[in-house]
Write a structure and sequence with these properties.
The chain is mainly α. The chain has 17 helices and five strands. α2 crosses α4, α3 packs antiparallel against α9 and α10 packs parallel to α11. The chain is globular and about 60 Å long. 44% of the residues are buried.
């Protein structure tokens, strides 16, 4: 079994792509895709009334700080223009249908690497429950002239294959499965208000700016997309992203019936793993990756996320929040899923048990390689991490 590299400042990259970057650099920056919000909006055909400020701040931060390779500039432009086009396509659908009377959504809000992906996929397997698939997150609305969603599904599979070729270490750390549930934080890229940018590029100025912004437009946009994607009010959404921990007031305003599931695991186990994943993500688009900088940023960031979530919990003592321990999930997944289903007002019957068993059987550990890392790679140690977080985080 192949293992991921720990040489984060020298990302693994296939030889043809290394040669492409070298040749592109030799030609000069004028031949490379522009990092410019105006150019992104023009390429996407974005209407003039859209708020461009998030993208202006992001573009400046990328230009000044991200240290992208020429190929990285192309990938970034394609990613952002694609998100803007997806937004335009969804707006063309008009107002979404009402989901009045729909069962309360389950929203998993734990920190990164606390079992959130496994938990979401198991819950989404329960009959009557559904997650946001990766291909839907990329393109939630039909393309112009589309008759079936097959083209969007094929596009997602091609994109996943490209990432596996470009950055196999990242995929080993975070497998991309187009037909499996994905984090809805990807949807927030369409309005420019998302932590996914700082999780994949070095953009500290944008990250600091984002912390001071009103997130309600992003959550209203998410709610609109979910209503378009699933008009059937009988189905229950199963959502998840650590992004929500930082913005629970906005999440619960957009989804006022949400049942929150907060997953917990020792930060000294989760943070180095997540920092390694981020470092491999940076390496997709940059040849200059500083793992110690990543460690410092995400230590501060995740502590902030937990403290803000705890403040919400203190201010809303009656909001339904269920705590789930990662080790309990791994040791007895059926008991854990049954507890969550009951907590959300459902019934964990034989059909649900069989569906979860089938999903467990399909779950392959280390499918794309074994993810290896050490806390010291990121300037972290167990004592620092244990002392930084509030006592109840683990």
């Amino acid at each position: 079994m192949r293992t991921t590299s720990r040489r984060y400042n020298r990302p693994r990259r296939p030889l043809p792509l290394r040669l492409l970057n070298a040749g592109w650099r030799a030609l000069g920056t004028w031949t490379q895709p522009a990092i410019d919000a105006k150019a992104w909006f023009r390429a996407a055909g974005a209407p003039s009334h859209w708020d461009r400020e998030p993208f202006d701040v992001l573009a400046q931060s990328i230009h000044d700080e991200a240290r992208l390779s020429p190929l990285g500039r192309m990938i970034t432009q394609s990613r952002i223009v694609g998100a803007l086009r997806a937004r335009k396509n969804l707006e063309a659908l008009g107002e979404p249908p009402s989901r009045a009377g729909a069962p309360p959504p389950i929203v998993i809000v734990g920190l990164q690497r606390t079992g959130t992906t496994l938990l979401q996929r198991l819950l989404a397997a329960v009959p009557g429950y559904r997650g946001l698939t990766s291909w839907e997150a990329l393109n939630p609305a039909p393309w112009p002239g589309e008759r079936t969603p097959r083209a969007r599904q094929r596009f997602a599979h091609r994109a996943a294959g490209a990432v596996r070729y470009l950055a196999p270490d990242f995929v080993a750390a975070h497998p991309i499965e187009p037909d499996q549930p994905e984090e809805e934080v990807v949807l927030f890229e369409q309005v420019g208000l998302t932590t996914s940018f700082e999780g994949t590029m070095r953009v500290p100025t944008f990250a600091a700016w984002l912390e001071d912004q009103d997130q309600s437009p992003a959550y209203a946009w998410m709610r609109r997309i979910l209503a378009h994607l699933e008009p059937d009010p009988a189905l229950r959404w199963v959502l998840k992203t650590p992004h929500h921990l930082e913005w629970l007031p906005d999440l619960t305003t957009a989804l006022p019936t949400a049942r929150l599931v907060w997953t917990h695991r020792e930060p000294e186990a989760t943070l180095p793993s997540f920092c390694s994943m981020v470092a491999h993500a940076f390496g997709m688009c940059s040849d200059q990756v500083d793992p110690h900088e990543i460690g410092a940023h995400w230590l501060r960031k995740t502590v902030r996320m937990v403290r803000r979530a705890q403040a919400f919990r203190e201010d809303h003592p009656h909001w339904p929040i269920l705590d789930v321990d990662y080790h309990d999930l791994i040791a007895n997944p059926h008991a854990c899923i049954a507890e969550i289903v009951t907590f959300a007002g459902g019934t964990y019957d034989d059909d649900a048990h069989a569906a979860v068993t089938e999903q467990l059987d399909r779950t392959v550990r280390h499918k794309y390689g074994q993810h290896v890392y050490e806390a010291a790679d990121f300037g972290l140690d167990a004592a620092t991490m244990a002392n930084a977080y509030p006592p109840s985080v683990a």
